[in-house]
Design goal:
Chain lengths: ~375, ~90, ~325
């Protein structure tokens, strides 16, 4: 059998690295549909999964892709799907089903220009709010944002692990540039942690599919045919999984879907700080925009400005506390994103007026010119002094 | 279900069971019994439906059609190997 | 019938007696929500008897359903049961079936769920010959939401969204299933309980994508709005018009108002299933190892080629 972990140093693009990350993490079912700029994930994984005892299914659309991913997860597989904007929209209903039924799986979105068919081959980061709020109703989201092929590999592995820990779908919000850029990817098995699926904590007949543990996560994930005879429904349900249609049970179940993420903050929160300590202005960014911002950061520093950068590696849940802390001492935040201002709204909300917040929007189709980010930084400085 | 009170009639070849309170009065068993051995009971159940009762135990052959078609699992039959016939007086005809 | 029979002796009254099929049911969820006279309970009943006759244990079968009255069936079965989103049961079931190839996956859902919103998933799973059985309860409307017309509503019938009568041509489900590639296609009414149970058994034991349509009464909505009467009247209405023709060409199975209801077993053949094709054409040729569970199971026939086993009786 071929190796799951492709140990060594490779020259891969983000999509390919994502596929390798999935295979390394133990993915054994991928159900997806072709869409630029994700197709390379499906193509590579179509080749790799049969080599390692997995199954690849090209479904008829993204709706069924998400549904089959959930079905595969309940069938005991580490399941994944991948798409881009239009497919992400189609997946929303079943993503909600995955959230409500607490199904472990991974959903990758290689973002492209939108809305609608938009710019199929060109980059954007316009689905970030959709990642948080895209499906109807209240639920919580964990969304990781890689900034390189190396991170595409690592964060896909991490996504599988988080899926098992939190028993929910985990989003990987990448973008077309990260997906299509080729860079060195080092795959070292000693640096890969794999979290296996937790077996139910009680035997059949006693195990309750939705009884939370202290971490607010259901205590184990059964597999179809293992004797637990579960009932899984998208209807509001009690700890047994049986539908109960009233406000009391709703109050028991739905807030917990968010809280289980909140209490796992240490596990889930992830960001990278660059020159933050004495910064007066902090760039807050993620994904490919973080790469551009790094260039802008150096340009600004060369002009003598005290700038730092906070790169969000986990975008959702948003690191509110970090922003609040920074807002107390910095003059302002600059938020470059390849959209017309989405995560900047979270920065504004959490900064609560204590620091200036300057969006650096971009409708998509190309990455920022670093000069625009530098200008924004200079503006914030000018305003502050 | 197991918590419901069950009526059991002796038939020629076994038994017929009815759980009155499970019945939703659809009438399928009464109407389609090939031997027409069922009729509506005099009293309605807790839900206001008239469950079936066995009017002709002699004629019931435990064919299980009522059991299969009942939408509410309220009626079923049991064939017993050496069942005695139901207490039968003379029959006419 | 005896004309002057003696009154039957009174029954014994017992406690703690279980229905023979109780092990397949979530008894604490009963009575079910379906109306008096609805055909769904019969379908559920026949299904439990089919499982019983097949000797299938409670861990050998999984049920996937969609949204609608029929979709609730999953919640009453004491098996691994998955009540998914509207129209997507077959897609979910594809993932489940592929993940556990030696178990049986049965989709039980309604005409609207499977053929309107779910139509695309139906034809693809049939095309691929994914190993699953689809039981479609056809009551000619969207019952749970109040009686809107749907893709199987006969021309002229009324629905809440067809107040002047439906003018859309409905699907002929057996024809659609057959032409999409289903290897087993049958249609019965819920009155034909024994044959329905047999059909379920045949469908479950035939490898690949198998389809059983069950014509059922919906007295609260379809039956009432179309003046067919109570559940019993509606059941008789379909049964009286039923014509059994095993091996008939499914294209003849259109359900026109007031006309014959063609029932029977129309297609019964063999061709490689989705996973068999994967096994034969990829895994064996490339000499890759098989995923766990593949190639096993009592109802597997590997090396299947296309044969037509359509029975005529």
């Amino acid at each position: 059998m071929a190796e799951r972990i492709l140990t060594g140093t490779h020259f891969l693009n983000g999509d390919e690295a994502c596929a390798e990350g999935a295979v390394a993490a133990g993915c054994d079912l991928f159900a997806g549909y072709p869409i630029t700029p994700q197709s390379e994930i499906a193509e590579r994984i179509a080749r790799r999964l049969p080599q390692v005892g997995g199954v690849f299914i090209q479904m008829e659309d993204e709706i069924s892709s998400m549904a089959a991913t959930l079905g595969g997860a309940w069938g005991g597989k580490k399941a994944m799907t991948a798409t881009s904007g239009p497919g992400f929209s189609l997946m929303m209903e079943n993503l909600g089903l995955g959230m409500m039924t607490e199904t472990p799986c991974v959903v990758v979105n290689i973002q492209r220009g939108g809305p609608s068919t938009g710019l199929p081959t060109l980059v954007a980061q316009g689905d970030m709010m959709q990642a948080r709020w895209g499906s109807h109703g209240d639920y919580g989201v964990v969304a990781l944002a890689p900034s390189s092929p190396q991170e595409s590999f690592e964060m896909t592995v991490r996504a599988f692990n988080l899926a098992e820990r939190l028993r929910m779908p985990i989003l990987v919000m990448s973008d077309e540039v990260v997906g299509h850029m080729f860079e060195r990817v080092v795959i070292d098995p000693d640096r890969i942690e794999i979290v296996e699926r937790k077996a139910p904590n009680k035997p059949p007949g006693e195990f309750l599919l939705y009884e939370p543990g202290e971490d607010l996560v259901p205590q184990g994930m059964p597999t179809f045919g293992d004797g637990h005879r579960v009932h899984v429904t998208g209807l509001t349900h009690d700890e047994r999984g049986y539908p109960v249609i009233n406000a009391e049970v709703q109050a028991e179940l739905v807030p917990r879907l968010r809280k289980k993420i909140e209490v796992a903050a240490d596990l889930v929160t992830d960001f990278e700080e660059t020159d933050i300590d004495d910064a007066e202005v902090v760039i807050v960014t993620y994904g490919i925009s973080a790469r551009t911002s790094l260039g802008a950061l150096r340009l600004a520093q060369q002009k003598g400005l005290k700038v730092g950068m906070l790169r969000l590696k986990t975008v959702w849940p948003f690191p509110e506390q970090k922003i609040r802390d920074l807002a107390d001492r910095v003059a302002g935040f600059v938020v470059p994103e390849l959209n017309l201002g989405q995560i900047v709204l979270e920065v504004e909300r959490t900064a609560c007026g204590k620091a200036a917040v300057r969006s650096v929007p971009h409708a998509g189709g190309a990455i920022h010119n670093p000069d625009t980010i530098v200008s924004a930084i200079e503006e914030v400085f000018a305003h502050a002094h | 279900m197991a918590t419901a009170t069950t009526k059991r009639w002796k038939t020629k070849y076994g038994y017929l069971y009815v759980q009155d309170d499970e019945c939703k009065g659809c009438g399928f068993c009464i109407e389609f019994c090939p031997k027409e051995v069922l009729e509506e009971a005099d009293r309605f159940n807790a839900k206001g439906y008239y469950p079936p009762r066995l009017k002709d135990p002699e004629a019931c052959v435990n064919c299980t059609f009522c059991e299969l078609i009942c939408p509410d699992f309220a009626i079923w039959s049991e064939k017993v190997e050496d069942a005695k016939t139901a207490e039968s007086g003379e029959t006419d005809g | 019938m005896l004309t002057k029979a003696k009154p039957a002796p009174p029954p014994e009254v017992l406690d703690n007696v279980s229905h023979p099929m109780e092990r397949y049911l979530r008894a604490d969820r009963l009575p079910h929500i379906w109306c008096s006279g609805c055909g769904l309970g019969t379908v559920l009943s026949c299904f439990t008897y089919a499982l019983d006759e097949l000797g299938l244990g409670e861990t050998d079968v999984g049920i996937v359903s969609g949204i609608g009255c029929t979709g609730r069936a999953a919640g009453y079965l004491n098996l691994d049961s998955y009540h998914t989103t509207h129209g997507r049961a077959i897609a979910f079931a594809t993932g489940l079936a592929v993940a556990q190839p030696d178990k049986k996956v049965v989709v039980i859902s309604g005409d609207g769920d499977l053929f309107a919103i779910g139509g695309n998933h139906f034809i693809h799973a049939a095309r691929r010959n994914v190993d699953m059985t689809v039981v479609c309860v056809n009551n000619f409307n969207y019952g749970m939401t109040g009686g809107q017309f749907g893709p199987t509503t006969p021309i002229g019938s009324r629905g809440t969204t067809a107040p002047y009568g439906n003018y859309e041509n409905p699907f002929n489900l057996p024809y659609l299933a057959a032409s999409s590639g289903a290897v087993y296609v049958a249609r019965w009414t819920s009155l034909h309980a024994r044959r329905l149970k047999e059909a379920m058994i045949e469908a479950i034991t035939t490898p690949g994508f198998t389809f059983v349509e069950v014509v059922c009464p919906c007295p609260t909505n379809y039956g009432r709005r179309n003046r067919i009467g109570e559940g019993l009247d509606e059941l008789k209405y379909y049964a009286e018009r039923s014509v059994i023709r095993h091996g008939a060409d499914p294209s003849e199975g259109d359900l026109l108002p007031g006309m014959d209801v063609l029932i029977g077993r129309f297609v019964h053949k063999e061709r490689p299933t989705f996973l068999q094709a994967y096994e034969q054409q990829i895994l064996d040729k490339q000499q890759f190892a098989k995923p766990p569970g593949m190639g096993k199971g009592p109802h597997r026939t590997s090396g299947a080629t296309s044969t037509d086993r359509r029975a005529s009786s």
